[in-house]
Amino acid sequence: MSSKANNPLLQSWREVKPGSDFPIQNLPFGLYSDSKVSHHACSAIGDYIIDLYELVRNGYADALNIPIEVLRDNSLNDFIALGKQTTNGLRERLSELLVDTNRELQDHKEFHFLVFKRQSDVKMLLPIQIGDYTDFYSSIDHATNVGTMFRDPANALLPNWKHLPVGYHGRASSICVSGHSFHRPKGQQKPPDAELPVFGPSKLLDIELETAFIIGKSTKMGESVTTDKADEYIFGMVLFNDWSARDIQTWEYVPLGPFLAKNFASTISPWIVTLEALEPFRTSGYTQEPKVLPYLQYHGDKNLDIKLEVYLTPEGGEDNKIATSNYKYMYWTMEQQLAHHTVNGCNINVGDMMASGTISGPEPHEYGSMLELTWKGTKPIKLKDGSERKFVNDNDTITIKGYCEKGNVRIGFGECKAKLLPAK
Ligand code: CA
């Protein structure tokens, strides 16, 4: 599938500073509010959001016949449900309107104040109403590290791991958009030397560096999505921090998997970068050996080169980059995850969210959780202010950033940021 909007030669008449996440080749989708607008769909160029409701209402995308209500709804679900022909059509139309040689919007300065607003002047909202949320466990380096730490270095991966993308059904209600804060969770923990469990605030509060994809097309119960067709069902991607309470997790997870250790908060970045904008950054993944079953096989390069960074910022302090990873280290692709998720006939809906699982790379600085970065707390991270972290402290802010870069084009996801408050 070729997209004119991905042409690396395109330049916008709107200013895009070097290093911006939002050049004309990105044009992601989001939802914003400000003092005048309660919720309008938007895109982004440089430091500005583009109000899609105002743009379409003023006749700049008439050929697409977009029902205007979907652009002023409290989620993008109905817009996304119009289908990729329409949503990608709007991205292509935006690209046309923003390219330096096009005068249609450029010369109508009277619309600019309605359509363009500084990102710093608006509030980004949770872009979708998330129906169901699934979390996978698809990074081989992460699964190997965790298996080594908690079970057996010689058999770090469980026997099923290389045969299916392991996952579990998570909770959607506590997924928040970047910029929120939440309280340290409380729960049962059983310290290794204690005979009985204790109750209290989690002492081992961790992050999980992940991405998530959003379902853009529903299926009916009984239908399955093949790896070949999966991209038709994937609308786009966001950054995802799957906050995890390791001490609660260790005690509760047997035999059904994580429960209260994971469902108290997750954070996503506000911009959904479309799968189409990500196409130029496809790359090959790890070789899958042993060979996977036919329904999990796929053709072509289906991994993505997305550079990922994690920052920890103490209250009033400086940003400390604590990890640098890459989505390309994923063992299982999104297409395989979706094929596996639906192979039994499980239906999916527009707005469902499926997270990658912690993305770790092979090198110690590429680990996607503090559990791994500090190797279970045995190698604390030194911060610029001289303090140390084994896990996340109260009032620390964690920010995940992500971007793709190839030649002169760099497209990014914006920030996935949240602050941990003390337990209530
Ligand atoms: Ca996770």
SSE blueprint:
Elements: E1 30-33, E2 40-45, E3 48-51, H1 52-57, H2 77-80, H3 84-98, H4 109-115, E4 116-118, E5 123-124, E6 133-136, H5 140-150, E7 167-169, E8 175-177, E9 180-183, E10 186-189, E11 198-201, E12 205-206, E13 209-215, H6 230-233, E14 234-241, E15 244-245, H7 246-252, E16 266-268, E17 273-274, H8 275-278, E18 282-283, E19 303-304, E20 307-313, E21 320-326, H9 334-342, E22 353-355, H10 370-373, E23 381-382, E24 388-389, E25 397-406, E26 409-421
Parallel strand pairs: 6-22, 8-16, 9-26
Antiparallel strand pairs: 1-2, 1-5, 2-3, 3-4, 6-7, 10-11, 12-15, 13-14, 13-22, 14-16, 14-17, 18-19, 20-21, 20-25, 23-24, 25-26
Can you offer a commentary on this structure?
The longest helix is centred in the N-terminal third of the chain and has 15 residues, at 84-98. The strands form 7 sheets. Strands 6, 7, 8, 13, 14, 16, 17 and 22 form an 8-stranded mixed sheet that branches. Strands 4-3-2-1-5 form a 5-stranded antiparallel sheet. It contains 10 helices and 26 strands. Strand 25 (397-406) and strand 26 (409-421) form a beta hairpin. Helix content is 17%, strand content 27%. The mean pLDDT is 97. The chain is of the alpha+beta class. The protein has helices spanning 52-57, 77-80, 84-98, 109-115, 140-150, 230-233, 246-252, 275-278, 334-342, 370-373; strands spanning 30-33, 40-45, 48-51, 116-118, 123-124, 133-136, 167-169, 175-177, 180-183, 186-189, 198-201, 205-206, 209-215, 234-241, 244-245, 266-268, 273-274, 282-283, 303-304, 307-313, 320-326, 353-355, 381-382, 388-389, 397-406, 409-421. The radius of gyration is 22 Å and the shape is globular. It folds into 2 domains: 4-124, SH3 type barrels, CATH 2.30.30; 133-421, Alpha-Beta Complex (Fumarylacetoacetate hydrolase, domain 2), CATH 3.90.850.
